[in-house]
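Appendix B. Chain record.
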Amino acid sequence: MKTFLLALLLLTPLSAAPPTVTTLTPSGGARGATVAVTATGTFDTWPVRVWCGTPGVTAKAEKTKGKFSVAVAADAPLGVTWLRFHDDTGASPLRPFVVGGLPEVSETEPNDDAKAAPLVALPTVVNGVLSKTGDVDCYTVKVAKGQTLVASLDANRTLRAPMDAVLQVVSADGSVLEQNHDARDLDPEVAFTAPADGTYSVRLFAFPSQPNSTIRHFGSPACVYRLTLTAGEFVDFVTPLAVEHGKAATLTPHGWNLTAKTAKLGKADEWFGVAHPVAVAREPHPCFDLTGGSDDPLSPPFTATGRVSKAGVASVLRVTATAKKPLAIRLESATLDLALTPVLRVTDAGGKVLLRAEPAKLNGPLETTFTPPTTGTFTVEVRDLFGSAGPRHVYRLRVAPPVPDVDATVAADRFTVAVGTPLDIPITVARTGGFTGDLIPFVERLPDGVTAAPAPPPAKPDPKTVVLRLTATKADAGGSIRIGVMKKGDASFKRVATAAVPEFGQTTPDVWLTVTDAKKK
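Structure tokens predicted for this chain:
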């Protein structure tokens, strides 16, 4: 009996830890499909539950540890949904799962040799893994003369696979016909127009995303990817990049194999395209497409879409402004998967430079404030930092008076409250645009048995911090909550706080709360 008890103790964790998940394979699924997913990580208890951040996506654990089924509704929103795996001890960090609009298949080995690569029907999204050092993955497709094959990889930028990949299109005799390394940040994309009917291979290999001294092709179980292969419509981007809220709009799509020169965007649509969904921003003010150029002055607030078309030549627009009335300027390109690294200048009627600005970090947005010294018309110039230009050097420029507002953040996306022990959650607030007024915390979707209230103020209050106090009276499975601040006496002013998801360079408003009973530990 003593031997049996000792063995049982060795097999049973003394203190179970929350689940952790490092990779999902496959890392996405098509609308209308139910996908068998393997999660790599640790699960001290089984089964665990899965929270899904998008309507139309549900997931459940199977009998085998680490195995899940993910059901995607036919009308689920395209793009990334976030999954969180949880049990009574806590929750995992968020993991991305991509909802696609094309048929999907999973990689089958062996597929290292282009001459013996499996034939893939078009259009298809292939879910695969460069699983080991030296790994190369190849897929064969049939393309007709004059058709454009688009091969687009999603690995590092969305899934944060630690790889810097290369895509090649290879002929039947092994010649490399087209190659790309970094089209969308570290992820490659190839658009190849077939010179003749035939069978072509798409070859994929990678280097580490953090360069080191190795010279071989890189791979690891974390190098998951989604490879879109299509000879059909592929929308790269649309212009304009923003439309006025509540209004239908006519868009111009840009990409390959497009069947229409324009497309209609309804009042509620937020994206365009299926093989590569493209977001279209909604703004509360007039929006303009200036990619063809314009000399007409614009009055803030407005959002304009422009393009740097010729190397060394600025994209120019004219803006009317009032003396001493500051204007907030936000310029984006790389954050929209486009090619421009912007430099912005504002000059007066005499050509004097009044403002010069660049993004605070590479591939980030450019944000600055311009205060006109006089009333009049000023020139805004946009160039590429490296002097390049082209069809994809498109940008979105927002110019508007600063609006009083609040940005709220919390330090983590997961918290634990124990029964009988209050939990204080500081909310950091940044007041912008001259916002004034007292702020109080709020919380939504609290589990049963948990109450919320503002924490008692400290002796020396910090104007940059609002503290929420949670108190639990009974243990609960916990759940996803939203925390934020509201203006005291004005319930219409609410701002939900976000938490960083540092691994993916994103933020989330969905914070997880675990409720435990300390007496049972």
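Further analysis of this model is presented in Appendix C.
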